[in-house]
Amino acid sequence: MGQWDLVGLSGVSAMHGTLIPNTNRIVFLEKVQKSSNAYLPDDTSKYSWSVEYDIGEATFRSLHTKTNLFCSAGGYRPDGTIISLGGAEAQADIAKGWNSLRFLSACSNATTSKCDWDIRDDITLKAGRWYPTVEALADGRLFIIGGSSRGVSMNSEEVGVPSWELYPPLPSNPTHFPFLLETLPYNLYPMVHLMPDGNLFIFANTRAVLFSTKTWSIIKNYPELPGPPRNYPLSGGSILLPLRPENNYEPEVLICGGATDFSSRAKGQDQCGRIKPLSEDPDWIMEDMPFGRMMPDLVIVPDGSVLIFNGANKGTAGYGRAKEPVLQPLRYQPWDSDETKQANTRFMAQSPSYIPRLYHSIAMPVLDGRVLVTGSNPNANSMDWGEFPVEFRVEMFSPGYLFADVPRPLLKAETTIGRTIHQPSALTVLEVQVAKQSPERGQGDGDTNENVISYDTEFEIEVEFYASVMTESQVVTPKGNPGNYTPSRVQVSLLNGGFSTHSTHMSHRLVGLEIVGYKRTPGALDRLKVKGPKNSALAPPGWYQMTVVENGVPSEGTWIRILQ
Length: 564
Prior knowledge:
It is a single chain. With 564 residues, this protein is mainly beta. It folds into 2 domains: 3-403, Galactose oxidase/kelch, beta-propeller (Methylamine Dehydrogenase, Chain H, 7 Propeller), CATH 2.130.10; 410-562, Immunoglobulin-like (Sandwich). Helices cover 4% and strands 37% of the residues. It is built from 5 helices and 44 strands. The strands form 10 sheets. Strands 33, 34, 35, 36, 37, 40, 41, 42, 43 and 44 form a 10-stranded mixed β-sheet that branches. A 6-stranded antiparallel β-sheet has the order 7-6-3-2-38-39, with no helix packed on it. Strands 1-32-31-30 form a 4-stranded antiparallel β-sheet, with no helix packed on it.
């Protein structure tokens, strides 16, 4: 059932969060309001609205922002540069963030780092957006969709932004998207997932479409998902289930929870819908959770299961609109096993937390196999104590696989695939702006060692299995069989934790890799021969946490970069 540990303080209320590639750190972002507990190092009279949190040290470093981050979205450039985009109105000495693009690159030395947010006045979105969604495309660009032109409780034709654009943009952007007019008013933070064919599954309200990234048009409409709408402010959650070689990477989308209606008396839905978007005759298969919840955070962990955190069972999303916090996570096992068949459900309740995580909470899978859970800011512009105050406490949830009877497998990649990448030295934000350097390149700390792999190309990693001695036939991935979701005994996976905010985990995905060879080496680590993803539609270029899993027990992760 897992275990909870209180590990630190976030500094800001952490309504947005994303991992910083090739580090053990995460960046938190929040709204400009009375909800920060962090101060700028060069002016301690001013609050910081974003921090870099060191997971291992449980400390944070304040960052500078000049545009309002509230209800924004984000993703990564292929080099690992974090991009935060969109936002809200001007507040105090912080400028409006509707059209804003913000760039943050990783720095290896967290204590002396000069890396910070780089915000340019001359590089902006083509449309102002509040509550948009971002998804990484196969070519490394970011697909940006929807939102509204100002803060609202519910979207409408008057304030909605029914368009999409790319970053870097197309000349025609922003491009009108009638689907976002047809799905009003429940279409803020649309649910978007990149399919293995390179197209996009887009869900809003109760409807879903398949959207071509070649013709930029709708190529398929899906049956409506039964039940109430699932987008903000009713706020269900969605996840692209792990893409596995065992079933030829057949994609499935899972959408769970949400409120029954827009009311303080609404109840949390207990239904999930699951669909195979690329099958010949796709339709929703409905499953029941043990209890209802709105504002859930769905997170994939290295063993391929989905953990569902946070949220409430009464009310809707928004300030002061939800009560009855759901403290108990759920584990969802996407594949059938003797255990799930006997229980007649894929859901298993986990150990509860004691900290309510309501509006503006996040959850993020981290390198050591745990899940970082923090946030909750359900009060408008207030630090006052109340029934559900602003939360700065950071928790770690350790899934049950960390308590297995056998040690976790060991994974090493540095000696087999590591290489040095030459990067420019870190500059201050002012130096970057004076130099007019492109933020798309990012600003690093100089030469760094990166584990680099390529598409459809074999590479080797060193491993040690402690559970048993295995033969090559037991380790090599079996030939793919559509419909067979059951994971192999040994798996190598790439995990992108995504950009987490408002029950939306943008670009979050787990991709299994094919193991094509295994060599035992007496007196040394064994070697696995693994093939990189066959194309960038499976795994867009960029950074991933790589793990080896043996019989459901994962190794600690190591950062891997896929080059374009």
